[in-house]
Amino acid sequence: MASNPTVNVQIVTYNSANDIAECLNAVQQQSYPIKEVVVIDNAASDGTVDRVRTYMKNANINNIQLVLNPSNTGFAPAHNQGIRLTQSDYVLVLNPDVQLGTEYVERLVEVMEHRPEVGSATGLLILKSTPDIVDSTGLAMNGIWRAFDRGAGEPVSQWRVSGEVFGVSGAAALYRRAMIDEISIAGEFFDEDFFAYKEDVDVAWRANLLGWKAYYCAEAVATHERGWKKGSRHSQPLFIRQYSYINRYKMIYKNLSGYRWIKSLPKLLAYELASNGYMLLREPKVLGAWKGFIHKLPELREKRQGIKKRLKL
Q1: 1 Cβ contact list (under 8 Å, min separation 6)
Q2: Is the pTM of this model over 0.90?
């Protein structure tokens, strides 16, 4: 590389004791130098903090900053907290249940240094339990604004070609600081109203609107435990299911403008009737999330206007 850009890694933990040491060890073994690792703990009660401190002591590591939040602020606010604490050229947002391959950061930085229009990048995330199966190769969005992890559940052998994608999964995402600064609204990169779930999709959509590209590098490999497994939805707390449901509507309200939705209206209406009908019959309490949406509408409106103003610049 022509330059030596700095990279910080930030990890938000919440009852992550079983994963955090392995995650940190993989970060420390990166072939590309990591300036600092910021661990933001959201009031874990399972000994996560002790595991981090023990790792730091035993490994004699001095580039880890441990931030202790008195309560669970959520994924999005905690990562914004980490972003504000650092000034590196790149920020790797990392889940504690992800273990990076040794060249993960190096491969992504190399791509992004050669392509200045790329503001975010990800590698090939594979399932830890079945390493021949894809977890994510980036994010895709369909015509009714539902986002998916590309390649999820498919054989790794089918995803060996690198290229541009709609966005990157927040499980192991490398973001360019210049993009973070440019697309943040009211000082927030991740929308803090989201708490958790789909905040990475919202960022990807906003970045696309403002002219930034996202990239999937097949040579950068990591494994992901994947906390919310298929079939485990009903085991999640109600407030988490509510955030997962309502955050899609928040990002549609903020990012969709003009008449782009008209051509998709029939499919959109069919999907909304089916999905909300299901919620009404099977999970009616999830629909209570609309109260929060209405309460937050003035703030969401300001963020929508902030994006529209950027589009006109």
Answers
A1: 109, 110, 113
A2: yes
